[in-house]
Structures are given as structure tokens and as C-alpha cells.
Amino acid sequence: MKIHSGTARSKKKGISYAKWGYIFLLPFFVVFVIFQLIPLISTVYYSFFQYFRKGLQIVGPNFIGMQNYAKLFATDLPKYFQNTLLLWVVGFIPQIFFSLLLAAWFTSSRLHLRGQRFFKTVIYMPNLIMAAAFSMLFFALFSDNGPVNGTLISMGLIKQPIRFLASVSGTRGLIAFMNFMMWFGNTTILLMAAIMGINPCLFEAAQIDGASGNQMFWHITMPLIRPIMAYVLITSLIGGLQMFDVPQILTDGTGSPDRTSMTMVMYINNHMFSKNYGMAGATSTVLFILCAILCLLVYFVMTKGSRDQEVS
Amino acid sequence: MTDTVAASQNGKKRKKAKSPARFGCYVVLVILCFLCLFFFYMLIINSTHNTFQIQKGFTFLPGRSFGSNFRNLMNNSDIPVISGIINSLIVSALSAVLSIYFSTMTAYGIFAYNFKFRKAAFTIILLIMTMPTQISAVGFVTQMQAMHLRNSLIPLFLPSIAAPIVVFFMKQYMDSSLPVEIIEAARIDGSGEFNTFNTIILPIMKPALAVQAIFVFVAAWNNYFIPALLLDSANKKTLPILIAQLRSADFLKFDMGQVYMLISIAIIPVIIVYLFLSKYIVQGVSLGSVKG
Hints:
The complex is a heterodimer of chains A (312) and B (292).
Chain A (H helix, E strand, L loop, with lengths): L1 H11 L5 H29 L2 E6 L2 E7 L3 H8 L2 H31 L8 H13 L2 H12 L4 H8 L13 H29 L3 H9 L4 H12 L1 H16 L3 H6 L13 H10 L3 H35 L1
Antiparallel strand pairs in A: 1-2
Helix pairs in contact in A: 2-14, 4-8, 4-11, 5-8, 6-8, 11-14, 13-14
Chain B lengths: L1 H45 L4 H6 L9 H10 L5 H32 L5 H11 L8 H10 L7 H4 L6 H14 L2 H9 L4 H12 L1 H17 L2 H6 L8 H10 L7 H32 L5
Helix pairs in contact in B: 3-14, 4-8, 4-11, 8-11, 9-10, 11-14, 13-14
């Protein structure tokens, strides 16, 4: 990288466009500092303070060091972290599986599937539905006297309505299912774009050499779409840790039954509404650290290949 | 000569062998499409029925209550639907435009110029890409309160100027399909740097811009967390907040026809935008593959 920029500079013989780099980057960084960096710093700052509202009285801000964190880890946080991660994983596994499968099928010249445009348009559709609206829809359909139960009873399959939202696996299952439905079409389109970006000569050459469809997928497609896979994984993980709208609306912010579907951001939201900025700040900081570590790990694992190439 | 004959025979055999596999593909696709369309269809059908019919179970035929559901919802003084639609449209459209323009600009700055902090800037962008907006909500809400932007739409669209995920995507796209020679050629023709960006680079980036515009628009349209924390006054509320309001209301006493009607209204504008831009998405997907 450095060597490359050095030669480029010497070629131009002193004409420097460097200032344009700064000008083009200026709007981004000004807005970033005002609307993201300063709020982030003050969030972390609040996490060390006792700062909440008790009735009409505002307590604090008083510096209390790590007490918010101690309280957090001793009580609710581990449970909500587990909930969040579980809900993400259960939704993500079918999401990446079906997306890879569909992307490989759609781009396969051997299968030559018809009606691709229709299929793509349809599977991307759930991604357009507002998560809040989608969750509200599921709540209405799967509620105790909703049409799902109505249909099952009138078909004689059950006598009593199934209380989907009163059972742990029912609620969690519905949340994971909604996340899967909303995101697999989006992921399919991204992966397809990546696969179609591969030079077709590679596939033709492999075909002439007698490679099977499977071999081509694992030895040509997969290594070459790794950057987009990284993008998909990173954004999905961020989205998973941020999970809020679907469980919030489905359970009306309670994470019922017994807070088993309460996610970390729902917890932050509850503290925000009760104006407990200290505890909300501490939870946010933990989430920030977790998110940063996890995403860094994913990023380094996925970019390792292209880095090696760059060096050689 | 013999090689090509063998290859074509081989191809014919394969085609025959593949037809059951193809059939399997279609079955899976049809099942997935059915799942996607089913909930969607149910939503629209239920918005044409009254509460009693909805609770009886699924019907696949539309009912006659569309008009009355619509009128009831519009006359419902607790739910300001019209201002909700307008607010959501303003926020989403401005977010999409600001985000794709300035993110492409940022990506281009990193892509096209050599400067001291180039690598550092890109690393920072990659690092903050991992930062969900939810994380800084505490500081964001208190700061907006201090800046007197609490019941305003400005804090909902202005921050989209700094959208690291869009920058990352644009940078990836430029690396794969924007030849550096174009910039050099424009300079030789005497084009200024801003002019080059606006009139040459942006049109080349069109497919990527369309795809990202959809993603940003949808994300802003769907955004519920931050708006719910910022907006209190009824005439500023966006659609997701109105839907959440329905959920919190005493649900069983509520008119289900209105519930489905509001959910339908919340998704129709997005579908209209999608129908207009889906061409660009499909095109963008195939154009993005042509290199150099």
C-alpha cells in the first residue's frame, strides 16, 4: 500500500491532490463527531454515574465508579446477552444457508432457472416490511384468538387455542422466524451480486477441466465471494446485537414470558424510559465493547485471504 | 474437434441428469415464495375484513370492509396517520439522498486521493461500521435535548451523512469496478475534482447508488428505536411509533380491521419505491459484475 502510493506520487512530480482527500472526507467526519462520537463518549461517561429519576426528583449525576457495571453483571445482563445471541443464531443459520443455496442456484448456468426475477422480487419483499409492522402482524395472527388459532380450531386440529406467545419456544421461535424471513432475500441478492462479479472465464475453464458444480462452488465461488460474506456476516451480527423492534413489539417491551425474549437493547430502552441514564449507559458500553470485539474478530478472519494476496 | 464433440455430448447428458435437481430447486423456491407472500397476502386480505371475520380464521377472499376500515382509521383521533406518513416520507427520503451522496463522496475521497491519513480514515470508518446507533442512544437523546432538537425530525435524517456501512459498500464497489484511469482522463480534460465526482463518478456508480438508496430508505422508514425516544408530540410521530402505540393500547378492545389497515398503509409507500427501483437493483447486480 505504502510503496504503491509512493510511486504514484513520484510519477505526478509534485502535483498533489491530497487536500481534496480531506475535503471529500470532511462532511462525513464532522457529522460523525457531532452525532455519533460525542454521544458515544457521553454515554460511556454517564455509565460511571448514578443518574436516574425517582418520582419527580432527579438523583445525581453522582460519580460512583464501576457500581453500575457491578450491578449489571450481578443481575440481569448475562441473561439478556444470552437471549440476544440465541435469537440471532437461530435466525441466522437458516438465513445464510438458504441465501447461499439460492444465490448458487440463481447464478448457475447449468440449472438455468426460469422466473428468477419474480423469485428475487418476492423473497426480497419481507425485507421491505417495517419490522414493527411485521411483528405487529405476527402478534395479531398468532394471538390467542387470532386467525391462526381460529383456523386450527375450525379445522378440528386443536380444541383449545395454542398460546404461542405464552411459551418460551413459541415466542423465541416466532422472533427468529421473523428475522429469517426479513433478511434471507436481502442476503441472497448481495451474495448473487458477488457471485456474478466473478469472471465467467473461471467457471468456463473449470467446466472444460471437468469440474462438477459442487467443486466449482467450493473452490471458485466461495473463496471469491469472501469479502461479501464478511459484509453479510458483519452487518447481520450488528443487526443481531441491535435486535429490538421485533421482540419489543411482539412482547410489548416486556420480553415475556418471564423476560426470556428480552434483548439487550430492549433493556437499554426500558432504562431510557425510566430515565435511568447511568444503567442505560453502562449497558450500552458493555454492548459497544462486545460488538466491537466480535466484529473485529469476524473482520480479521474474513479478510485474512485478501491480505495475504496483497502482501505477495 | 473430437474434444468439442465429447464436451457437447457430455453437456447433453448432464442436462438430462439435472432435470430432477431443477425440479427440486423449483419446489424449494415455491415454498419460500409462498411463505413470503402468505403473510403479506393475509395482511392485505385482513385489512378488507371486519374484526369478527378476522378472528374466525384465514380466508383467501377479500371482504367488503376495506372502505369502512379506512374511514375508521382516518377518523381515529388517537392515531395521526396522515402526519405519520408525511413525517416518515420526509425522514426516509432525506436520509437516502444525504446518505448515498455523502457516503459515495467519502468513499471516493479515500479511493481517489493519496493523503497522509487515508489509511487511518478508512480504518476508522471500518471500525465505526461495527457501532450500532443504539449504543450511543443515551448520549444522543440527552444531547438532542440540549440542542433543542427533541421533537424535531432533523436528528432523524441529518446523521445519515455519516453512514459507514454505505461508505464501505461504495468503496468495495469502486475497488472492483471503477477504473482509476477515468479520473486521470478527466483531469487531463481539465475537469475539476468536484465536477469529476458529480458528473463522471456518480453516474458510473448509479447501480450501487440505487441499491444503497433502497437499503437506507427502508432502514430509515423502519427505524423505530431512536424516533420513539425522541418524538413525543403527536404531529411529529412517524409510522413505526404509531404501530407501537397500537400494540400498547388495550389490544383486544381494538378494531382489528384498523390494525391491519394501519400495517398495510405503513408498507405500501415502500413497495411503490421498490417497484420503481427494483429494475435498478437487478441491473445493478448484473452491471456490477462487468469489470473494467
